Protein 1
Amino acid sequence: MPGRNRDVDAILDATRDERKVILTRIRDIIHSADPDIEETVKWRKPSSPLGAAVFEHDGIVCILIPLKGRVRISFLEGASLPDPRKLFNAQLNGKSRAIDFPVGVEIDAAGVKALVRAAVKRRS
């Protein structure tokens, strides 16, 4: 059943600075873009014991990761997604594309929502 995942909640709870606000906002945007999206956590390892928040709908749509001083949303097939607002600013080589949101930056909610919807459509 789609919805929020306690393991993703744990990632947010462990992020105790301004990045938590960014993570929460992007998570809400993802769910508003696709109410049927499912959250999971993958890639737990010693250097990242909580893993990464993964959003899936018939496959991985995007990954949300807190990094030092910023939050990254990564689209594994981002190179094939339309990006008219030029939001992609990281992982620009290869198939994947990402958006890094430094602390204090304004989030283009409509642009992120459009990318999530395009990624979901591509998966379907």
Protein 2
Amino acid sequence: MALQWSLRILTGTAWLSGAIFALYILAFYLGAAQGGTPELWNETLPDLYSAKRAPGANIGIGLHFALGAVILLLGPVQLISAVRLRWPRLHRWIGWIYAPAAIATGLGGLAFIALRGTVGGPVMSFAFGLYGVLVVLSGVQTIRHAVARRLEVHRAWAIRLFALAIGSWLYRMDYGFWFLFAGKIGHTHEFSGAFDYFMDFWFYLPNLLVAEIAIRARGGAMSAGTKAIAAAVLGGAAAFLLLATYFFTTQMWGPSILWSLGLSA
């Protein structure tokens, strides 16, 4: 019971935080593009936008941002059992938006890496490229098993896809907390410091571990002791997300959203 509640709380927290972050993406990144100032993208990560080089890369990363907002909003809805059981048609329709959007997001990021590379050099390019490949793979597998009606396998891949899809959101939160509590130790402007290299992989590989815990919890293939440990891990993740969401909403995402709506000074 504790494990199931931990999963529910984590899912709800992820949706709340992801929804706010999705609104921030739409407000900041798409707002800057619509306003004719896409160079503002570089304030969050250097060299994202360049007017002189590889226009296809700018399109790819813009697609990555726009569809990333879509999958953050829709992903948690797909994990709610009540929606899947009571409104299966809605679940399928959202799925046909969500999974292809995730695949397109991954392909957009891979296009950017192929055309421009990354600010962090070969290590970041490899790590982010692997992330993009895993997102595309999980999206394809989610669709493939749903069409074949292998529903348990489909749900397992859908959980993995969601765990990967929230990576870019966690990446920013992890950096924010590191800068808050540790300054910029291990970070360089070129994203080639020790902490930068660590973060290249940290923002998505632990997510997959949590996803595997969730998948096994659904199947009941856990001892009582393992379930207790899993519940504590998931509960801790939910607590971190709540704290991080409050901090980033009040300090960054909220002000940006209000500014884009013309509601701030």
Protein 3
Amino acid sequence: MTVEQHIYLQEDEMIHRAVETLLRALGPVEATRFLALPRERPLDAVQRHRAWQDSLDQETFFQEVFGH
């Protein structure tokens, strides 16, 4: 039985290879567009919880939780 060992690339080499791959696959214009796409930040836990609370109907929620 043989075990293969994976060696991770240094970050700068990984970035270089990824950009080269994007350029080859998409071309310079589309690769640039891809790299410039805005990144949405996920809601933090408090915002997510408040949004969930805002969507609740209090009577229905209490009925489901307490069952009376």
Protein 4
Amino acid sequence: MYKLTKLAADGTDLPNDATGHLAVRLDHSLLAQPIIWTAHRSPERLTWAEAKKWAEKLDINGWSWRLPTVEEAFLLPDRSRTEYPLVDPAFFPDCDGEWIWTSTEDLVPPSGCAWGVYLYSGDSGRDDQDGDDRVRAVRAGQ
């Protein structure tokens, strides 16, 4: 099962046709509990260190945020979609299929890499932490 739900500022569900939402809940059959995502990405491409700081400084809906793990981010693309990007723009309006950073560092040499996920096709890969990618944060504690 893969289901997205738009969330109001108080965390309650919004209808699928609602606009102006800032957060989205992802329910997935592989998850013990849902993941709450920011509906919008970082306005700029950031290094991995900048991405971590950007996510942690967010104050959307008064919640705490963080970078997703690679496993969490890998579940965001809906692989049952028949068109690209695999992330539904009705829920993530600024998604153009960007690469997003995850909190997962790659410990295999060369060191200094972290994992990212490509929201266009659902691929993942490692990138130098000095590279620049977008950020979509998840709610801390989820």
